[in-house]
């Protein structure tokens, strides 16, 4: 979706860099989510990337399977991003060559 927006609006690239930096710090990659206060933990769970990172941490660090709720969230997020990305591509693909 961001790539499509970048084709039509060149400044999106600069905002993407800022957004990715913010998402990096709002995703529990280099810190344990249990060390975060409960109020901030709610904000972290709003980040869709957190579910993927937590599933990896469960498998690699904790040697457990992720909960069924987390696996359902992962599956839903994956399908939602696949369907919405493909739909956006189909709608905008005729205009890509005009803008390039």
Quick take:
The chain has 100 residues and is mainly α. Helices cover 74% and strands 0% of the residues.
Descriptive overview:
The structure is a single chain. With 100 residues, the protein is mainly alpha-helical. It has one domain (2-99). The chain is 74% helix and 0% strand. The chain has five helices and no strands. The chain has helices spanning 2-8, 12-25, 38-45, 48-60, 68-99. The longest helix is centred in the C-terminal third of the chain and has 32 residues, at 68-99. The chain starts with a helix and ends with a helix. 4% of the residues are buried. The model has no long low-confidence stretch (mean pLDDT 89).
N- to C-terminal distance: 16 Å
Principal-axes shape call: globular
Number of strand segments: 0
Number of domains: 1
Cα-based radius of gyration, to the nearest Å: 17 Å
Weakly predicted, low-confidence segments: none
Share in helix: over 70%
Based on helices, strands and strand pairing, what is the structural class? mainly alpha
Rounded mean pLDDT is 89
Count every helix, treating DSSP H or I runs of 4 or more residues as helices. Answer: 5
Order of helices and strands: HHHHH
Could you describe the largest sheet, including whether it forms a barrel? Answer: none
In what range is the share of β-strand residues?
Answer: under 5%
